[in-house]
Amino acid sequence: MKFAVLDLETTGHGADDDILQVGVVIVDEQLDIVKTYSSFVKPTVPIPTFITGLTGITEEMVKNAPELNDVLLDLIPLLDEAVLVAHNVGFDAGFLNQALDRCGYMHFTGRRLDTVELLRIFYPSITTYQLGAVAEQFGIDGHQHHQADSDAMATALIFIEITKKLRSLPLLTAQRLSALIDESKDLHWYLKQNETWIEQSTVFESAEFDYYRQFALRAKEWNEDKTPREEGSVNPLDGVTFEDYLAGIKERFQAKFEQYEERESQSAMFREVYAAMSEDKHLLIEAGTGTGKSLGYLIPALYYSVQSNSKIVVSTHTINLQEQLRQRDLPLLGEVLPFPFKASIFKGRGNYLCMRKFEGKLNAQDMVAPIEDPITAAQMVVWLSETETGDQEELNFGNRGPEFWATVASDADSCLNRACPWFKRCYYHRAKHESNIADVCITNHSMLFTDVQADHRLLPSYSHLVIDEAHHVEEVAGKHLGLSVHYFTLVQASQRLFRDSRSGLLPALRLKLQQEGDDHVQSWVETIDTVIPVFQEIKEHWDKLFELLYGFVANASDSVSEGGALVKRLHSGMLPKDWEDVLTVENNIYVELTRVTKSVEKMMNDVKDRVDDLSVQAQITDLNGAIRDLNRVKDELRIIIKLEDIHFVYWIEASSAYRHRSLQLFGAPVDVSTQLQKHFFDAKDSIILTSATLTVQKNFQYAEEQLGLVGYEQQGKLRTVLLPSPFHYREQALVVIPRDFPVLKGANVDDAYLEKLVGSLADAAAMTKGRMLVLFTSYKMLKQVYDPLKAHLDARGIGLLGQGIDSSNRTKLTRRFLQQPETVLLGTSSFWEGVDIPGEGLVCLAIVRLPFQPPNHPLVEAKSELLQRQKQNPFMKLSIPQAVIRFKQGFGRLVRTARDKGIVILYDTRVIDTYYGKHFLYSLPGPKIETMHTDQMVPRMQEWLSSGYSGTRAGEQTATLTKEE
Ligand code: SF4
């Protein structure tokens, strides 16, 4: 047996396109490369310019190349009795057969393997399958992407690595894998071959894994986890003052980092955080970029926690920051702190795999999507041999992966807890246990509020809390304390119960019960048979309700969201005209759902009392979870449809393309400050709220008002501290405002404005050689700019990437931006914060418009109305502060380290022409700000960038230790 690893470069993807280059690498059964072959092919059609740009293949290079037939004569013997391997094998095999056909040869009908599919299974955490990026991650030197010989070699080396990895897996894992994949597939054959190889070569199973219920697991039982310091031992901080502790840490930093220099603002942060914690005060602390904010709170928090034997909870908003704490800051602290400590990560329950459900799904072969689901399951089986956490964040799913995950994720309603055979290996209970014994528990804002709603039964009990990225707390609170019902909420919940006569929890339970010898079986089966048709009726009512609601939004939408959704506000306490039909249909749903859930609950209780079989009990537990979901949907729908709570704002969103199936109902509290006071500021001893963007015009008033902290400072319960960034913004950042630039009115962009903007962006990009991020406030405008800008940039050899055009994935776009040397990136909402491109990768940031929120979004509108009732000015009190915070976030993308130097072009002249413009400029951390005519911009930019800046030694250290918000 041999593997022929093939790569083809072609003139395009169509049936009329030609092969331009062939690369083949032959790998034998021992995984040795035994032969290589490559050749250009003379095409019969001209090579399109973009293909030459992509591959580097010119007409000149192929003009004397062999004809296709001659190349195939070389290729056919190589493919004889070979297994064809390619990266996206469908493409290469399709082109190969097309070529064979054209020249009158038989198709290749042998086995095929796809390295993309293999990577998904065997490298479940890899974040990209793009060949160039994978080759880089695998350390393959000298790879030239889009050259057939080099791509074939890279694919062959990747294939060899994958196969070696498969052969090193535990036999149980290999057996699980081959059992998952349909026997008719070539992938099954490949897995079986290697399973046999493992069987023959394995004498003892590795002690690295825990073998349990036919799974090989990396994580061992969690009851073996110990507390960080021996119980009853002397407190390591007895007699150690906070200043001694800081001095000790400083010494260790100096020993570790030769160039370490203390940063004033970080030192101030240590002391402020410690003072607030030990004096039971709340603290609002803005720490500019480069302060080293996370160490700024972790170092004092760990001292306070260990010294007082109390737990500190740290909450972040983004996964990026959580990962940064886990991967960078905590290990570093492990090296410099004078005592051992334990920090744990605790996320929402749905992030953890429920092994009981996963095992049940695999054993029952319950695969809804017959092609995708087995691959996702295989990916997870491999992942189990690697993961310590069972956290889905580590998995890179395919398209249907999230749906698969939803069926196997841990959830409170269907957990067997101590009765579960997996309890001691359960990932969720492990994370919970670790949080209980940890000194610091790191969680996220969502979890803080989920814990509040679960009466504080989820997080370990705490009285000291650090909230990082605190500018997001109010918004997350609003989401969690509010309600939302999507069309698919009920559809998915009822599909879990019944999909067809053989799949779904009810048919599965029916089958199982029929095998029981109990007298009640007949009546249980009758209950199931009676409720199943009712779900069909409920679904019909549900469709009718959502069609009616879609009528409301389609006929009279108030606004269109940034994503293009139609939005219609529903006023609380005021039922809309013609709402009676909605109420009637909702009532039908409510009554029917109550009836079915009650009869299923009654049956479940009876089964639970009479049947001991563990697998039946497990099915009842899952069913219980699904019934609770339905009850929740029913109750939340009723609350929204009644529109009764005057402290809430209600609205509908739907897309005109997907109509009622895209419809979502929302209910959100207008003001969350009272709830924040009740659950946090009045309930906890000390809360540290920090972010790089809390102040507006160097003032905390807006944050205090939003969070419900007004008056706490006067009572001596709150301190506010603004720490400047250690960066030298005056030398590092130049803000250019083209003062003659037209002001854009409303959301529509006219041709003259577009032309001027595109011309200016193209000139600036030519000067900076790409390396430019353009921030928009609307996706519509981004799309309008994309094509004309692309035409300008193409002519100057500069690439362009657009969010939602080249990819919707921020991480992928950022990576491509970094990999492609001279490129401009256009981004909207998510690019305003959280994108970190240090160094020369980003030289220029263009802000097209000030980031005001659309005033007619129902939530913004309701908040404005509340302010008006309080005799306050919503524009000054809400719109400006919100926009300033976002503007500061956007600005923060430019200078990420002490050595960065760059330019911000601000195309919105309202910053200099209006009375409120100063709020924006004065909120920035001190860059050089210049206004000029548009024509003067490029020469000035050139002058500024060529003047050079080398940063400072302290800055260098800052860049090493702190790269964060
Ligand atoms: S203990 Fe609960 S969450 Fe964990 S595996 Fe068992 S049923 Fe699933």
From TrEMBL:
Stretches that traverse the bilayer: none
Binding site for ATP: A287, G288, T289, G290, T291, G292, K293, S294
Function summary: 3'-5' exonuclease.
Recorded GO MF terms: 3'-5' exonuclease activity; 5'-3' DNA helicase activity; ATP binding; DNA binding; DNA-directed DNA polymerase activity; hydrolase activity, acting on acid anhydrides, in phosphorus-containing anhydrides
Cofactor: [4Fe-4S] cluster
PANTHER family: DNA REPAIR DEAD HELICASE RAD3/XP-D SUBFAMILY MEMBER, REGULATOR OF TELOMERE ELONGATION HELICASE 1
Record keywords, A-Z: ATP-binding, Exonuclease, Helicase, Hydrolase, Nuclease, Nucleotide-binding
Similarity section: Belongs to the helicase family. DinG subfamily. Type 2 sub-subfamily.
Name of this chain's protein: 3'-5' exonuclease DinG
Hydrolase in keyword set: yes
Gene Ontology process terms (BP): DNA replication
Motif position, DEAH box: 468-471
Residue span, Helicase C-terminal domain: 760-945
Classification via PROSITE patterns: HELICASE_ATP_BIND_1, HELICASE_ATP_BIND_2, HELICASE_CTER
SMART domains reported in the protein's UniProt record: DEXDc, EXOIII, HELICc2
Catalytic activity: ATP + H2O = ADP + phosphate + H(+)
Signal peptide stretch: none
Top enzyme category: hydrolase
SUPFAM superfamilies: P-loop containing nucleoside triphosphate hydrolases, Ribonuclease H-like
Helicase ATP-binding domain boundaries: 252-527, 274-484
Record EC number: 3.1.-.-
